[in-house]
Every structure is written in C-alpha cells, then in structure tokens.
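Hi R.,

Here's the chain you asked about this morning:
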Amino acid sequence: MIVELTLADALHVIAHMRESDRAAMVAKFPGMSRERYAMERFTASDYRYALIARDGEPVAIGGAQFATRGVATLWLIATERLDRHPVELVRFARKFVRTLLAERLAHRLQGYVLSDFDICRHFAEAFGFRREATIPAWGANGEDIDIYGLVG
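And the predicted structure, written out as tokens:
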C-alpha cells in the first residue's frame, strides 16, 4: 500500500537500501550519515510517499522536490524487497507522474541517476523519461550522472 512518508519509513528504507541507492547517496552527499540522509529526504520534499508491504515493512520511499515553479525533481529509494512489489509501485508512480503534469503542478519532471546502474535508467525510461545529458564526473567520487527529463 502507498502511504504518506513518515520519518520512521525513511529511516528503515535508507538503512536497508539497494546498492544503487547507496552509491547515489555517497555520490551526492559524501560523508552524510544514513540518518541525516533520511531526514534530508523527509524534510526537503514537497511530495513524499512510502510503499509498505503487507507485513508492514517499508519497501520504497519516493517523492518530488520542486527546484523552481513548475519543475520537479523526482526521487526513489528502495530496498531489495522492491522486486516483490513492482506492480503497485509502477501503478502509483505512473499516476503520480500523470497527476503532476495533468494538474499543472509541474510542466517538467526530471531525475538524476548514476550512469553505471542500468536499473535506474530502465526505471526512468519506463515512465517516458528520456536521457537528456550525461554530466561527467558530477559525483563526489567522479561518478558520471545522467539527467532524465519529461516535459508535459
């Protein structure tokens, strides 16, 4: 089930996040603790949600952060258990994207992914996002970052 994100959900998912999400955290926020990163995700987002498994365990968290009027950066962090709950997340994410655009809350959606992780690229492309550019060595340890965008 999809619910509004709580700090407890953020702390749990970030404590158990996938390797690709951990690598992204380190690239963007080197030296930041997982607890502080959970706080950052919880407080900095304009919209935030959690996917909760039937047994009550948080599986994924995500949201949107508006950089400027009409431009939202989307984010997602998940545990390995996401593989068992893809349909619910995909349905919600598609509705979330459509709503942001249809309600004119945003005219541009964007996301940043590490170039080395195909799983992130595939997820962005599944929602119609297109790779716009690669920023070489943008990460703290020289990681290349791909920018994906969707204009509606």
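The mean pLDDT is 94.

Let me know if you need anything else.
M.
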